[in-house]
Amino acid sequence: MVTQSTTLTTRMTYRTNTPSTKPNQEKPVDDIVGFLQEARGLVHQMKIVPLTPAPPPVDTTGPLIALEISKAKEYLKKLEDEDREAEQRFKITQDTLQLRLLQITKEIECLDISINEVSNERSSCGMMSLQLQEEAMIIRDQTRDEVEMCRAEGEVKKNLFIHETSLKEAEWKKEFGVADDEENFLNGILNQRNKTHQDLEAEIDRHRNLLLFKENKARKDELSRRQLHEAIQELKGNIRVICRIRPLMGTESSQTVQYNYLSSQELSIEIEGKERAGRKIEKQQFPFKFDRIFPPDTNQRTVFEEISHLVQSALDGYNCCIFAYGQTGSGKTYTMEGSEDVEDEETRGMISRAVTQIFDSSSRLTSQGWRYKMVASFMEVYNDVIRDLLAKDFKSKVLEAKNDPKTNKIYVPDLTQVNVSTPSQVFELLRRASHNRTTAETLMNHSSSRSHSIFQLSIQGHNTVTAENIDGTLNLIDLAGSEKLEQSGAAGTTKTETIAINSSLTNLGNVITAVASGAKHVPYRSCTLTYLLQNSIGGSAKTMMFVNISPADRNVKETISSLRFATKVNSCEIGTAKKKTNFKF
């Protein structure tokens, strides 16, 4: 009993001191089985061995024995629990090993199958290798035969090529002999052509020098032309007057004024004198003389030929002004603007013809190194107020003329300025301005201009050869017609317009009179029209006036009044015109 207790105690001590095995820690299967068998034997011995009767209780040993028995029971219970757990782990491990064994068995079977397949493939590859070797031997034999055949065929072709080459070589030698003769012939022609080429180059150089000489001469001739043109214009006078008589209109009476054309510059008007008691009615003669007089059958082209030299002066750098004066319905607007079609060769007016001449001349002068910049504007003076005829809001946009203190030149700030490079661009501006211009119907004219229109073309030029600069201006003015209030039948707004027109024309007459008489004070500021024309009438400008008159007998008083005014203008001396050159282009 003591031995068994000691053994149990020793095992308990061993169990207690031995570290517990972790659940995930695997032991060898044999150790586990041996441990279980040993545990079962100890339990069995404890059950079958009879216990020695306990000695009488002793106060000192009884409690110790009871404690040992209690520990042995606890330990026995613990061993039974561990035994059950060991059996469970053993069963799990056994199942796992069996499952793994099945897997390994299947893998071995798969490997056997793969080995068999590899063996079969190896056998197939061996057979295929033998077949390929046999085919390679067959191909090698065939290739050898083909190479021999090609070699033999190549020898035949080589010999044939050598033979053909020999024949061609003989032919080429024969042809080369002919080619040598042709080469010598062509060399002779080439030498002749080279000589001709040299002669042509010499001729080209001669013509080039001649062209240069002619260009220089053309520039000198152009300068001489300008000088002669300026001299002619000065001899003709600074303010030239041209009289133009319009033909009868379809609605007018056949009674006409009796004109006596004494020459291309002189005419006289013959009218019946007043009847007096006891006296014979005498005819009155009113002679007039101007720079040129155009009868009613004169076309627009002929009229423009007379003013074309003055238009040319604007391109030479002068301030040029052409204006039309006369009673309403006398043909002023037709003379200046022509018909509605500004490009109709027969009817187009002085403005469109002047523009065409300016652009044609500037285009020809480009060969002499001239480059031009042109700017156009169009305005009207209506009731002594300036309106911009090229502006969209021309009726509400009121402008004012001012004097530039640097140039002493009259200009209009904020006036629309349009850069133009072709006549068609200017014609479009003319159409727009003509549509905007103020007109009204009176007893004297069914479409009477109620304002003075002023077309202005500014021209700046620069010569790239001579470095010369020019700055010219062309002013083309259509004055509103003078009317007698009692004859025009004007009323309301039209009456106000007529009064303003007559007042401005009267002021223009006063200015002309002051200039002609050499007065110290010239009333240019008496109205807007005279202020705008200050540079053209009193400055260093070249000015020309059309006096347009009617052939109708009922207008004879207005006709004589217009001719007298024109005579006064023709007597004006405004000094020698000067061109402007000191500016930056």
From TrEMBL:
A GO CC annotation given for this chain: microtubule
Coiled-coil parts of chain: 69-96, 190-217
GO molecular function: ATP binding; microtubule binding; microtubule motor activity
SUPFAM superfamilies: P-loop containing nucleoside triphosphate hydrolases
InterPro entries (UniProt xref): Kinesin-like_fam (IPR027640), Kinesin_motor_CS (IPR019821), Kinesin_motor_dom (IPR001752), Kinesin_motor_dom_sf (IPR036961), P-loop_NTPase (IPR027417)
UniProt entry keywords in alphabetical sequence: ATP-binding, Coiled coil, Microtubule, Motor protein, Nucleotide-binding, Transport
One family name in Pfam for this protein: Kinesin
GO biological process, one term: microtubule-based movement
Low complexity bias locations: 1-21
Signal peptide, first to last residue: none
Domain Kinesin motor per the UniProt entry, residue ranges: 238-572
Residue sites binding ATP per the record: 326-333
Region annotation (Disordered) ranges: 1-28
Family under the similarity heading: Belongs to the TRAFAC class myosin-kinesin ATPase superfamily. Kinesin family. KIN-14 subfamily.
Protein's recorded name: Kinesin-like protein
